Amino acid sequence: MDMNEYQQRAQVTSQGERGDQNTKMVALLGLSGETGSLLTLYKKVLRDGSSFGSMNDRIVEELGDVLWYVADIAAQFGLNLSDVADANLLKIKDRWEPSNPLSFPQFDSEYPEEERFPRVFEAEFCNSGPTTHPRLEVFISGQKFGSTLTDNAYTTDDYRYHDLLHLSFATVLGWSPVLRALLKRKRKSSPMCDEVEDGGRAAAVEEGLAALIFAYATQHSLLDGVTRLDWPLLRTCKEMTAHLEVSSRSSNDWEDAILQAFAVWREMKRNGGGIVICNLDSRRLRYQDPC
Predict the structure, then answer these.
(1) DSSP characters for the chain?
(2) Contact 206, 166 (CB under 8 A)
(3) Average pLDDT taken over every residue of the chain
């Protein structure tokens, strides 16, 4: 049965005036109640085991009630159930399906060579100073990259390694206005691109995301043993960059970039620095011990 057909037939039995606030609330409470009934059913299965008997018929009944309320809620808000389903499938694809490398063009591929990210490069992270207040310098191709960094915190928390996120964004997503500016690879041949994509606002968004992601990671052991990130974090990454070219990258791509960055981050912390090899062709970061 077509989902819209089901919704139309289900609406024949809907009570109350469509769009009325009370009717909407009744539908929302009904969905909550039917979801609870489904959970109660499974609780009985767990409690009673094989003595409960076949539960498939009961599951069909309870899921049907859940579906009825989902269809009713969609109708109350003027939505077609098929459109809801299509939007959900797009969200699931964005969240879980890895991007096809063949459909992953680089944002700077059509620009002059001096305005493109290098395809493969190394960045060396070197610590100095007291362990209570370490200082970090980053070198790319033997040249100092950016300013000398500290954790900018009252206690050492390793935030000084946050350039790894910029490197990972560039490597995995093909996007980093911060890295592009520091490498002097801004796309000045296109004034609009230089202003919007490589300008101050885009860089501020990237720095804000780096701080947000770091705060999340510190609450999860720098993502040690973590293979999946919470959806609200990935949604925020997408929402904050919705006006930029990187919006074409999926939530799964963002997750990959963040997890790769912190895999190297943990090695940097463990070894007191090191080298990260960035390969934009394979979209991979690789840690190498310091010399």
Answers:
(1) --HHHHHHHHHTT--S-TT-HHHHHHHHHHHHHHHHHHHHHHHHHHHHGGGG---HHHHHHHHHHHHHHHHHHHHHTT--HHHHHHHHHHHHHHHHSPPPGGG---TTTTS-GGGS--SEEEEEEEEES-TTS-EEEEEETTEEEEEEE---SSS---GGGGHHHHHHIIIIIS--HHHHHHTT---TTSHHHHHHTSSHHHHHHHHHHHHHHHHHHHTTGGGTT--S--HHHHHHHHHHTTTSGGGGS-HHHHHHHHHHHHHHHHHHHHHTEEEEEEETTTTEEEEE---
(2) yes
(3) 93
For residue 142, name the pLDDT band (cuts at 50, 70, 90).
Answer: confident
Where exactly does CATH 1.10.287.1080 map onto the chain? 3-96
- What is the per-residue pLDDT across 51-96, written as a single tens digit (0 to 9) for each? 666 778 888 999 999 999 999 999 999 999 999 999 999 999 999 9
Q: What fold does the segment set 3-96 form as a domain?
A: Helix Hairpins (1.10.287)
Q: Binning pLDDT at 50, 70 and 90, where does residue 42 land?
A: confident
